[in-house]
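can u pls check wat happens w/ zinc ion
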Amino acid sequence: MTSDLETQLRAVSLRVTRPRLAVLAALRDHPHVDTDTVIALVRAECPTVSHQTVYDVLRALTDAGLIRRIQPARATARYETRVGDNHHHVVCRSCGAIADVDCAVGDAPCLTAADDHGFVVDEAEVVYWGTCPECATDRTAQRTASPEGTR
Ligand SMILES: [Zn+2]
Ligand SMILES: [Zn+2]
């Protein structure tokens, strides 16, 4: 079941270790989670893995390009295994929920900057901010429950 993950590690010349496999599997099943959540997920599989090991694994996998680290303003860093397609994210201002958004037009057009100032651009990060459906529903419910408003 983990053989595809082992292949991924070998492809970037990383030694196959249980913590690395566990982190990759956790992120494949739970995209956009923060470090604490990764630690909890990994420990559910391998209880002996230390926090430091998970930090080290996250850094090694990010450096190797197997996972992508995203850090929206004011939010904690999140990780995901969907790499290389320069997709974007929509973030809820209220609860921090994150979802993937494909490039708005065609194939990674955001990489073509109007003026690249001579830089070689390899990544463009677009973050859409808003309110997720759940928080929008909560807010409507709150407004109905307390007409005076609680804020
Ligand atoms: Zn929300
Ligand atoms: Zn994503």
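The pocket of zinc ion (ligand 1) is lined by residues 92, 94-95, 97, 132, 134-135 (CB under 6 Å).
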